[in-house]
Write a structure and sequence with these properties.
seven-stranded parallel β-sheet; 27 strands; 418 residues; 7 helices
Length: 418
C-alpha cells in the first residue's frame, strides 16, 4: 500500500522562506523542481519528519493510493508528498498537524462535492498546505437543504415570493442546512497553533472558498494563493471564537500575494464578531480583487455594519471610479454577464464590476444613484457584530483589526491609512 521515506514533527513558520525557495514567490510558479524536492528531503531530515508518498493508480505499490490513507498513517508533523492526480476526497485533519505538499499545483487536484456542510475538501486546524488545487464542486441538480426548508416555509405561510426567499422564523436554519466550504478551519485544536496555505488554488461552487473560525494565539496565512468562488458564498468567511477561553488578543490572519475572484455571492468577504475581547489582527498585502456588485436590493441585508462607502453612492452617478476601480455596466450588458464571467467568456477586470440590472436614466454618461437616506449598503464586505453596533476595526468590525503593514491591495479599504 505504501512506502515512506524515513524521518518526523513540529510546525515552523519559516516555511514562508521554504515556500519561496520551493515554489517561487508569486502566483504562477507551480511545479516542484528537482532542487525543491531535495530541499524537502533536507527539511524532513533536519526537522526529524517522515515523508509519506501518495500516488494515484500506483501499480508499483510503493506509495499510498489515497491521501486519506496517508493521513491516517501519518504521525503528528509528518510530510505527505502528493503526486499528480485527480483525488476525489474529503479530508479531516482537524486534530492532526501535518504538511501536505503537491508535486505540481496544476495537476495535484483534490476535489469533493461540498454540498454537505460537514464535507469540506479540507478540514484543518494546523499545519502547512502547498502546491495544491482544491475544488469544492456541486453536482448538477443538487438542492441545498436550506432551499428545501425555505420552499416548505413558503408553502406553509402562503408566501410564494421567490425573489425574496428569506427565513421568516429563523429557527430551522442551522449550519448543517447550508453547503460546505472548500477549506474549513474550525476546531479548538487550532488554539496556539499555526496554519499556512502557500501556492494553492482554492475553488468553490458552493459556500465560501475558505471558512475560518479563529482561535487565540494562532496565525493563519494564505500566501501566493488564488481563491475563486462561484457559489452562494464569496472568497473568505471568518469569525472569532464564541468561547472566550479559546479566544484572546493574540490572533493573526494574513493574506499575502493573493488573487480573489468572486462571481457567485454579493459579499466577497464576511467577518463576524462574537466576543468583543477577541482581537484578530488582519493583514492584506498585494491582494488583487476581481468581484462584482449588483443593484438588486434583495442581494444585501440591513444587518451589515460595514462603515465604508456604498458602491453606488461612491460612483455618484458616474459609470466608473478609477480611484477605487469600480466599473458600472448598464442593464443591457449586465444580462447574462455573470454567467459569461464564470465560464470565461468575458474578460475579467480587476476591481468591482457593478452590474445594473434595473433600468436607470442615463444622460451624458451619468445615472441617478440611490437616495442618500437609503440605509441598505451595496458593498462587497459583510460586517456583522453580535453587539448590534458598528465597531472601530476593519470596515466597522469590532474584532478584526487592520494592521499597519497592509498595502498594495486592489480595494482601498484593505490598505492601511486609506
Amino acid at each position: 500500500m505504501m512506502k515512506r521515506l524515513s524521518f518526523k514533527p513540529l510546525f515552523c513558520l519559516a516555511v514562508l522562506i521554504f515556500g519561496g525557495l520551493v515554489f517561487g514567490t508569486s502566483i504562477g510558479s507551480y511545479a516542484m523542481s528537482d532542487e525543491a524536492y531535495q530541499a524537502l528531503r533536507e527539511r524532513a531530515a533536519t526537522e526529524g519528519r517522515r515523508i509519506l508518498v501518495v500516488k494515484q493508480y500506483n501499480s508499483e505499490r510503493d506509495a499510498f493510493d489515497t491521501i486519506r490513507d496517508a493521513v491516517g498513517a501519518a504521525a503528528e508533523g509528518d510530510i505527505i508528498l502528493i503526486y499528480p492526480g485527480n483525488y476525489i476526497e474529503s479530508l479531516d485533519l482537524s486534530e492532526k498537524e501535518l504538511i501536505l505538499v503537491g508535486w505540481d499545483r496544476n495537476t495535484c487536484v483534490i476535489r469533493f462535492d461540498t454540498s454537505d456542510y460537514f464535507k469540506p475538501v479540507l478540514n484543518v486546524s494546523a499545519g502547512e498546505f502547498s502546491n495544491l488545487t482544491l475544488i469544492g464542486f456541486k453536482e448538477e441538480g443538487t438542492e441545498y437543504r436550506f432551499t428545501s426548508l425555505l420552499k416548505k416555509e413558503a408553502s406553509e405561510t402562503g408566501d410564494q415570493d421567490q425573489e425574496n426567499t428569506e427565513n421568516k422564523s429563523g429557527a430551522s436554519l442551522t449550519p448543517d442546512c447550508y453547503p460546505g466550504y472548500t477549506v474549513h478551519i474550525e476546531n479548538d485544536y487550532e488554539f496556539g497553533r499555526n496554519i499556512l496555505f502557500d501556492n494553492c488554488d482554492i475553488v468553490s461552487e458552493n459556500n465560501f472558498c475558505v471558512g475560518i473560525g479563529t482561535r487565540g494565539n494562532s496565525i493563519v496565512t494564505f500566501a501566493n494563493c488564488s481563491l475563486r468562488s462561484y457559489g452562494m458564498g464569496g472568497c473568505v468567511f471568518a469569525h472569532d471564537s464564541v468561547d472566550p477561553f479559546y479566544g484572546g488578543e493574540n490572533t493573526r490572519l494574513i493574506f499575502r500575494n493573493n488573487r480573489w475572484e468572486n462571481y457567485g455571492a454579493p459579499y466577497m468577504m464576511s467577518l463576524y464578531s462574537y466576543q468583543p475581547t477577541n482581537k484578530i489582527y488582519t493583514t492584506f498585502q498585494d491582494v488583487k480583487v476581481f468581484t462584482y456588485a449588483v443593484d438588486k436590493r434583495g442581494s444585501y441585508h440591513f444587518g451589515n455594519y460595514y462603515t465604508g462607502a456604498d458602491i453606488e453612492q461612491s460612483l455618484g452617478g458616474r459609470l466608473a471610479d478609477p480611484l477605487s476601480l469600480i466599473q458600472a455596466v448598464n442593464p443591457e450588458v449586465s444580462r447574462g454577464y455573470l454567467g459569461g464571467l464564470r465560464k470565461g467568456y468575458v474578460e475579467k477586470q480587476e476591481g468591482v464590476l457593478y452590474l445594473q440590472i434595473k433600468e436607470k436614466e442615463i444622460e451624458n454618461g451619468t445615472y441617478i444613484p440611490k437616495a442618500e437616506d437609503d440605509l441598505l449598503k451595496i458593498c462587497v464586505f459583510d460586517i456583522v457584530n453580535e453587539s448590534g453596533l458598528p465597531g472601530i476595526g476593519f470596515g466597522g468590525s469590532e474584532n478584526f483589526i487592520l494592521t499597519a503593514d497592509s498595502y498594495g491591495n486592489t480595494l482601498g479599504e484593505m490598505n492601511y491609512g486609506f
